[in-house]
Design goal:
By secondary structure, the protein is α/β, with parallel strands linked by helices. It folds into 2 domains: 51 residues, no CATH class; 372 residues, Metal-dependent hydrolases (TIM Barrel). Helices cover 33% and strands 21% of the residues. The chain is built from 13 helices and 17 strands. A hairpin with a 2-residue loop joins strand 2 and strand 3. The radius of gyration is 22 Å and the shape is globular.
Length: 466
């Protein structure tokens, strides 16, 4: 297949050019091709297909490092098929899947069942992040690593295996696992507030009835996200010092969904303090673009963890993305049923779908000249591929997978959740506007944002020395 007349993004710049794709791989990229060069591409084009991109922008497929695809006993919320279809239609060609499933994906047996369930049902490539086994059992961990998981996730607020992640001894043990096997640990950074403070806030809420998203922010305050981030970083430094760890064996930690200015600055300071530290973090589109004062018909549709913060935090984080200081973006795509999200606040689960709003909202910022394409592509495609060693992904280069998204600008339209491919037909971005058309999406050279396509997603497997 040849993609011709495209505006190809590569090396931080847009070039007019053609792309030859054979057997799902980018075989040749030619910029400003002469007629003779185009004929050579035609002669090498194995399937004979030629697609005129009509001067639309051709980008590497987006890599989303944080999502919840549900399925198993949560298939009413989402299935592997519907979740990855939502990703496919959005230009997201690779996703990482989190383990807070039912039952939790924290044993060898359950992770294997989880992966087997996904086979032949995924429309994009999927990497799996496991929960930590009970007791931080190293034998179980080695068996899970043999299955090829990307890493392990820890949830201090609601641990999957009854492990108290608020204790240094637990954190030190998982840091030792990370060091020994060089496996990333994904961290939801949050300490809970005290029971006394929680009860007082709930009592105040019943009397004062302040806005739900304000209440949610108070129950899960910035200071507790910062406190846990400090706790992790101090334990990280202590582990390295106490064990006299060589830089090549430093543990690998990744902070999920940083939501506030203070946590961002704290983590960034730690990263800058030692070039050998293996610390990364992500920011979500909703923490970049939404705040707790957003007006919603149903306020619980905006309930998420970490909460939407004050506007000063979202403005700060968006500015950091504009400045090129955010390495990674993850959606935290977290589908629920409309019935669940229509309950009263305390019964409503946190989270909302993110695949189908992420690209069109942020590309819209680019088309409105509020964000550079270069900084977006780095955070959405190039850096995830580099950080998580996803070979042959994230770039439009010869020899790389033909995971591509083609977009163009169209007249402004309203975002309507009823049109989503995910099962979760609600969004805090409802009625936001965009000017972005996602024209075509390719996974290894196969067009996947069409109803009748071949389900060709594969499971990405890491290779650890166990």
């Amino acid at each position: 297949m040849i993609l011709t007349n495209g505006k190809i993004f590569s090396g931080g710049l847009i070039h007019n050019g053609d792309i030859l794709i054979n057997n799902g791989i980018i075989s040749k990229v030619v910029y400003e091709p002469e007629e003779q060069e185009f004929k050579k591409l035609v002669n090498k084009n194995q399937d004979g297909k030629i697609i005129d991109c009509e001067n639309k922008i051709v980008l590497p497929g987006i890599i989303d490092i944080h999502s919840h695809l549900r399925d198993m006993k949560q298939s009413e919320k989402e299935t592997f098929f519907t979740g990855t279809m939502a990703a496919a239609y959005s230009g997201i060609t690779t996703v990482f899947n989190m383990p807070n499933t039912n039952p939790p994906a924290n044993t060898e047996d359950q992770v294997k069942k989880w992966m087997d369930k996904a086979k032949n049902s995924i429309n994009v490539d999927v990497g799996f992040i496991a929960g930590v086994p009970k007791g931080i059992d190293e034998d179980q961990i080695k068996k899970i690593l043999d299955l090829g998981v990307i890493g392990f996730k820890i949830y201090p607020l609601s641990p999957l295996s009854e492990i108290d992640w608020k204790k240094s001894v637990s954190l030190q043990k998982i840091l030792d696992i990370s060091s020994k096997y060089q496996v990333p640990i994904f961290i939801h950074a949050a300490f809970p507030i005290s029971d006394k403070e929680h009860h007082k806030l709930v009592d105040d809420f019943k009397v004062i009835k302040f806005p739900i998203l304000e209440f949610h922010d108070r129950l899960n305050p910035v200071r507790m996200e910062v406190k846990y981030s400090e706790f992790v970083i101090q334990n990280y430094k202590d582990y390295i010092t106490d064990n006299k760890t060589e830089p090549k064996r430093y543990p690998i930690i990744h902070f999920c969904h940083v939501s506030c200015k203070e946590a961002f600055l704290l983590i960034q300071k730690a990263i800058n303090s030692d070039k050998n530290f293996r610390i990364t973090f992500e920011v979500t589109p909703h923490h970049l673009l939404l705040s707790k004062d957003i007006s919603l018909d149903n306020e619980t549709h905006g309930k998420v963890l970490p909460p939407l913060r004050g506007r000063e935090h979202s403005q700060f984080l968006l500015n950091e993305l504009k400045e090129g200081n955010i390495l990674l973006i993850g959606t935290d795509h977290a589908p629920h049923t409309r019935e669940e999200k229509s309950q009263e606040y305390l019964k409503t689960p946190s989270g909302f779908p993110g695949f189908e709003t992420y690209p069109i909202i942020l590309f819209d910022q680019i088309f409105r000249y509020k964000l550079s394409l270069e900084n977006f592509v780095k955070a959405s495609s190039e850096n995830p591929a580099k950080v998580f060693n996803l070979r042959n992904k994230g770039f439009i280069e010869e020899g790389y997978d033909a995971d591509l998204i083609i977009i163009n600008k169209i007249p402004e339209y309203l975002i309507k959740a009823q049109n989503f491919k995910t099962k979760a037909k609600f969004s805090p971005f409802e009625n936001f506007t965009s000017t972005v058309n996602i024209w075509k999406v390719f996974l290894k050279g196969i067009e996947i944002n069409v109803e009748k396509h071949i389900t060709k997603g594969t499971i990405i497997k890491a290779n650890y020395k166990v």
